[in-house]
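Convert to structure. Protein one:
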Amino acid sequence: HTTTETIEFDSYKFKEAITVALAHVSTDDLRPAIKGIYFCNSEICATDGHTLFTYKLKSELVTPFIVPAVFCKSIIGFINSDTVSIRVGEKSAVAVIGDIQISTTLIDERYPDYTNAIPSNNQKAGTIIAEDLNRAIKRAAICSNKTTNMIELNFSESSVSVKSEDVDYSL
């Protein structure tokens, strides 16, 4: 006896959320859990181990599940109706978009506990001009490690500093 759960999404909001989530999915074959998009409780979640994306859903899910990124890419390529439904079973999921059905095997791994990555009682907030931050990140990226692309952001009362280094080349 296999139980199934069906979740319905507004297709526009689903496409928007999944498109952003796909940019945060890992490509690391050694970490299969984060090679997909995690649907749990009332959120969609994606991470590559360095960045984290979450999107609040309108409904609560009974059973959390992870779908491969390629499944989500396929779904957004076919969206042509008002709603997208996903039927989730024990080991598989089926997306229904109008007359089209796309199925996948679920990723059978434990997703990392991302809820502790962001403090829930953070009282700090700030505003920054996105264009200025983007330019600073691009400049810092030139000197970052080509494997990790790590950039450090330090926030103070009135400023943000952007820093990177490639210790292999002592830049």
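Protein two, convert as well:
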Amino acid sequence: SRNYGKVVALNFGGGIASVADNGGTIVGSENFGQVTGAYCGGILGNAEYLGSANAQGGDHIVIDSSVNHASVSTTAKYGSSGGIISVVLSGSTVHIRNTVNEGNVYSGLDSTGIVDTDSANGFVAGGFVSISEGVLTIENSENKGDVTRYGSKLRGCAGGFLGYVGTEGVY
């Protein structure tokens, strides 16, 4: 699958999918379209697993052999942006492998997408995943994009691979 169109979302936005809330697999997909909104990812906006654990074990959500080529940015207060996924929620198990982010990731732009160093917009930016509160495994993957968290009014963070890691862990 390939997306060439720009994605503008009020809440969750993703270059390939906005929300995966009951498991799923994305394989061999590419995003070429800029993604902008509150919680945005170059491939997937929100990884959230609402069901019971897979009886055979394994991952709830898998992203494999995919590439984000485009920029990802948040223009919302407390928003987050990730080159591959914006948010991995608690209770989710996500496995990312053989995947690349080539797009720049920004957090803290004004509502028109212009850099606003005095903005209250944006909170967390990650080259691969902005916020992970679930179980996240990343293997054989790389970030080639710049990660920038603008804004001076809020505490926030930025990381080349992960912006913020919560309680369940990254492997």
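The CA atoms of residues 2 and 30 lie 5 Å apart. The mean pLDDT is 84.
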